[in-house]
Amino acid sequence: MTYSYTQISQYLRCPRSYRYRYLDGWQEKETKASLLFGRCFEKALAAYFLQEDSAATLFKEWGVWREATLNYSKSDSWDRMAHQGVHLLELFARDNRVRIEDPRKDLQVKINRSLPDGHDFVSYIDALGDLDGTRSIIDWKTTTSRYPDESTGLLALDPQLLCYSWITGISDAALVVFVRKQTPEIQYLKTSITEEHRQEFGQLIEMTSSQIQAGRFLPHSGIRFPQNGCVSCPHLGLCLENQTMIESKLIRRPGASDLDWLDQFTD
Ligand code: SF4
């Protein structure tokens, strides 16, 4: 068994949802424009570090989806997102705060770690590079709203950064957040993760792995407003036995857990 951050976080959010996705093969249909745009934008960033034409790469990748029927959020459209992306790429080049020494090696870095129970854990890290001169784990995010400014230190508890810090042993980590709003903005949010937090995260992974191996998949439903995880869960139709919801949201691919590493690109 090879685990990933996406698998572990899905189990922790709701074990039943994990079972639907990884054991039964029920995957969410890929029609969210924001998610697909994020993947295209990451390819444009890779082109930027490879000293290729990043705007042309963005248009080429995003162009694949131009005629597709996607779910756009209220104010988004294909054109608007493309232009915001180009604006953000220009801003990023102007800021010039991130250095990637060897883009062929240091982007989408695959790291494996063996767990004490004999299973494996794999991570694909967006980038390992220097932010403002400090070697850091870097995770790209594209979003339509700003992340909270990092004055409270909360980012040190971000589970994805904790995971990457645990698997690499690197303390410094950063989110580079590309905000697609009226006036596009890039946030560079930095944190430092302690050895104690890394060890705790490792224990959390071991515990989760043992729960999965023991076949414990009880639902963690939430019905309290406004933090009801079921409302945004793609598997809600399965839990409610609602065929219309199932067909609108999901596609079944038995054996899909073999392709789990692809999920890394959706975060
Ligand atoms: S709808 Fe709720 S209980 Fe059902 S899988 Fe999703 S989160 Fe879990």
- Summing up helix and strand content along with how strands pair, one would put the structural category as alpha+beta
Number of contiguous helices: 11
Beta-strand fraction estimate: 15-25%
CA distance, first residue to last residue:
21 Å
The small-molecule ligands in this entry are: iron/sulfur cluster
| Stretches with pLDDT under 50, minimum 5 residues | 261-267
What would you report as the Rg, rounded to the nearest angstrom? 19 Å
- Percent in helix: 40-55%
Shape: globular
Main sheet: strands, sense, barrel: 7 strands, mixed
Oligomer: single chain
| H-E order | EHHEHHHEHEEEHEEHHHHE
Tally the beta strands. 9
Mean pLDDT: 92
What does this entry look like structurally?
With 267 residues, the protein is of the alpha+beta class. Helix content is 42%, strand content 21%. It is built from eleven helices and nine strands. It has helices spanning 5-13, 15-23, 33-49, 54-63, 78-95, 103-106, 159-168, 195-213, 229-232, 236-239, 243-249, and strands at residues 2-3, 26-28, 98-99, 107-114, 120-131, 134-143, 172-179, 185-192, 250-252. The strands form two sheets. Strands 1, 3, 4, 5, 6, 7 and 8 form a seven-stranded mixed beta sheet that branches. Strands 2-9 form a two-stranded antiparallel ribbon. A hairpin with a 5-residue loop joins strand 7 (172-179) and strand 8. Helix 3 (33-49) runs antiparallel to helix 4 (54-63) and helix 7 (159-168) crosses helix 8. It starts with a strand and ends in a 15-residue tail after the last strand. Residues 261-267 have low confidence and may be disordered.
